[in-house]
Amino acid sequence: MDTFASLLHGFAIALTPYNLMWASVGVIMGTAIGVLPGIGPALTVALLLPVTFQLDPTSAFIMFAGIYYGAVYGGSTTAILLNTPGESASIVTALDGHAMARTGRAGAALATAAIGSFVAGTIGTLALTFVAPFMVKVALRFGPAEYFALMVLALVTVTAVLGSSLIRGLISLMAGLMLGLVGIDIQTGQTRFTFGVPELLDGIDIVVVAVGLFAVGETIYVATRARYETEELYKIRGSLWMTPVEWARSWKPWLRGAFIGFPLGALPAGGSEIPTFLSYLTEKRLAKNPEEFGKGAIEGVAGPEAANNASAAGVLAPMLALGLPTSATAAVMLAALQQYGLQPGPQLFQNNPELVWGMIASLYIGNVMLLVLNLPLVGIWVKLLSIPRPWLYAGILVFASLGTYTLNNNVVDLVILWVIGLAGFGMRVYEIPVAPCIVALILGPMAEQHFRRALMIAQGDPSVFFTHPLSAAILAIAALLLFVPMVLRLRQRQKMAVA
């Protein structure tokens, strides 16, 4: 009953005219961002962090949640009509969605993507409503040793899963941990790595790093890789509705996608790419006509789009309940929490229930808004593709610089922004994932605090991390996730060498 009462209280907050306005701003902006290739929700939230500093935290997070869900919705539009996914999770949608558009069935592809997103988003939000409080009850039993182990697990999984190699992931992780060490040591009061710069005594602002890595680095990378010639855009012919046969072929993939997406999204480093690929493979195996896949099978659009939206809700569960980001967007949203001086994790539910439940309630409202907006206004979203790319990217860079400067009104932040932005560009060129860096910057200082507290309680005995059963189990899982892929790669190389 507590969950229902909290959710009703959340609806009372989210349905106020002021918060409804920010929810609508979020979903409209998110859909537009999802449609534009190369600009994802992480970049957008990072870009808006400095601008929303004066905004009420609850309203800001209602808008961020709308942007996140909206970008997940909007990414399918360009994937289907242009064969250019708006964000990485829509890559699978492009396989059959664009094939449907080429044969004049773009309307049905857009409809099954929109309705599937609504169904799975609602199921995922329902799961979030009941899973997050359960996670909080478990987390409240954690001590410093267990929290340290949990953060090590998050750091290891993000590093091991993302990127093309473990070494590149570790490079990104170490860079984030080093940035997190800058400033004054909380326990000793000693300065660390400030190099005599007074502005660095409080540490490097997470917002500056997030904007630098995602807004500046990503934009420069996309701009240098973009093709500015006109691409072929397939027009929508006929009705934007589905035939009874298409409805019959879509509803099961919607449900399967939802139940695949949410739990995988909630796992550390689960994200949305893995559930969409898994959903596509599942639908292909269960299909009566698997030869249609890749040529315009509607199940190949319905399942992955449902998994994509359900995983978005799954990502929010550990972020809100445990303070653990499982995707780049969640990491940037955690940075936003710290910008407002809020402590992510179980204390957030106790100290700021209005923010948590207002945000969860706004997801239900945002889902309805997105369903109403997506199909009737698809023509307007497509027109966004006519914006000249140089104007778009230049505008993002100017906006990022102005927003960062307004944080503390000093030039040091601007210098840090562009140094980190250029470093982020280099990381993308050499295929070094940026997510481990921002996750390490957020979790590194927190892990250090819990590590020191655990040692103080145990009077300096390091065995405390292995004598507590839960802490030992979590560290064992982290070790397996780190070393098992390395062993498998070595075996594969040995087999190739023998062959």
UniProtKB/TrEMBL annotation:
InterPro entries the UniProt entry points to: DUF112_TM
Highest taxon of the lineage: Bacteria
Transmembrane helix listed as a keyword: yes
Keyword annotations: Membrane, Transmembrane, Transmembrane helix
Residues annotated as domain DUF112: 20-438
Transmembrane segments: 20-49, 61-82, 108-136, 148-171, 203-223, 315-336, 356-378, 390-408, 414-443, 464-488
PANTHER family given in the database record: TRICARBOXYLIC TRANSPORT PROTEIN (PTHR35342)
Protein name: Tripartite tricarboxylate transporter TctA
Originating organism: Agaricicola taiwanensis
Lineage, uppermost ranks: Bacteria, Pseudomonadati, Pseudomonadota, Alphaproteobacteria, Rhodobacterales
